[in-house]
Amino acid sequence: MRIISLLPSATEILFELGLGDHVVGVTFECDFPPEAKSKRIVSTSALPENLTPGEIDAIVKERMAAGEDLYRLDRGAFADLDPDIVITQDLCAVCAVDVSKVDDALEFLACSADVITLDPMSLDEVIDSIRTVAAKTNTEDLAQSIIGSLRQRLADVFNSVSSAEAPSVLVLEWTDPAFTAGHWVPDLVEAAGGSSLLGKPGENSVGVSWEEISTCAADVVIVSPCGFRLDGASELGEAVLAQDVLPPNADVWAVDADAFMVRPGPRVVEGVEVLSTILHPERRGPVDPAKARKLR
Description:
The chain is an alpha/beta fold. The protein has helices spanning about 10-15, 55-65, 75-80, 100-110, 125-135, 140-160, 185-190, 210-215, 230-240, 255-260, 270-280, 280-285; strands spanning about 5, 25, 40-45, 70-75, 85-90, 115, 170-175, 180, 195, 205, 220-225, 250-255, 290-295.
């Protein structure tokens, strides 16, 4: 079995299912587990490097309006690797290669690979994605064990924080312009014992004005920009703080977005655990400084 993963989250799922040796191709963003970085890269970004969030937003909007691709798919690599399974998505054209591009490439190469499309919109659907992959790779028993463990961890968080008052939480998924987090992220906040503001569960992330943000009743602001690790999130959070546009009385934290928030794979459950330590340290213990950083 030869598998190409066009999603960092799918790569994580495949390795969790013990299929790392079957993964032959990944994207340039597939960096977890570390072994994934040894696989052949078949998808790269079409954007220039070292752009600011504002520059990224402008170029993405310009290229999408012009019908141009945001990712480069290496058809030669596809031909060389001759996959049996390709895992992709149809959820967000900004986040990864669109399934239509994959279908076009496979048709061009006369490749009969089975295409698995993962488009979770909620925390439950993220966890169920493991079962979807397992059903195509004959790893259902292991998947059941993994899912059981993830749900037990969520239950442990719930049992420890359910009786506590839920602080209001605003998650910033982008900082220039401002976007609040949608999809499964509000579910992560709720599962961690918080109440999500502005972002709606199961719906797309939406742009909001800084006036809406500054006047919202957030007790906690989480800066977790898509595509950024903890240091990058911290830098962007400090830049936002310098603009004096956040709710004045809110605690402000940076969280490693790629590891725990925006990639719909098994580590979102760890994201719930991280958020629970931010929101309820008296019940969940101190925050791991390698995963989240208090900015104010």
